[in-house]
Amino acid sequence: MIVFTEKRQVEKHLQGLKDQQFSIGFVPTMGALHQGHLSLVSKALQENDFVVVSIFVNPTQFDNATDLNNYPRTLARDTELLNTVSNQIIIYAPEVSDIYETETKAEHFSFDGLEFEMEGRFREGHFDGVGTIVKRLFEIVKPDHAYFGQKDFQQLAIIKKLVEKHQIPVTIHGCPILRGTDGLALSSRNERLKPEYKIAAPFIYKTLKSAKKQFGTKSAKYVTEWVENAFSNHNLLQLEYFIIADEETLKPVSRKSKTKTYRAFIAVYADDIRLIDNIALN
């Protein structure tokens, strides 16, 4: 297992592989790896000769300093875990200064309005931070293919838009959400859930499944109000938002159309841990 901490090192190593016509897959992560990450890595290994996994907690995409400070950092465990998967994995685990050099500041991006919906409404500057780090990582790794989970569906849409607008030569792959046996979407933040909240959290996916069933016969307004009411009666979980949106534009639906594809998006606080999830509706 090769672990690089400096971009000049990983760039030199990857150029050597590319000179030999090897294909490069890429899985960007913030570490605290779980089976969801490993499913992305496995997919990348199936479709490429080598896979780069970046492990970097990106400060510019956090709008909450406490969340940034508390985000789990487990590089030794992550390296050990990846070492059990394949010897074709290359880890890039830089310091903040290696990515941002003298100024830890996000660039400003336009994603044609995608950045103003859902997460963009509640996390100011978040997608500028995401765009900044993903663009810089793409410039360093120069992958042929990059893999992202659909749990962060809005992020996936924005990265596709980033690649399109900046003409970055990489193919983006969205991979299915991996869930625990209780239905909870796998997330690094799940590790921080207190026992009672860990028991309560699967209510999120249970509610999403009920919303999907109702969406077949009910209006988006009805389903939204039903979900909001379900969480208002929950004594542990606090709903931040539930939105039914057009998958392409991410704009909330006002009137259903048979020609459009819809998805329900949700953000919930379990104590001080913020959990997001989504589900395809049709």
From TrEMBL:
InterPro entries: Cyt_trans-like, Pantoate_ligase, Pantoate_ligase_C, Rossmann-like_a/b/a_fold. The active site is at H37. Pfam families: Pantoate_ligase. The keyword Kinase does not apply. It catalyses: (R)-pantoate + beta-alanine + ATP = (R)-pantothenate + AMP + diphosphate + H(+). ATP binds at residues 30-37, 149-152, 178, 186-189. Its main location: cytoplasm. This is Pantothenate synthetase. The gene is panC.
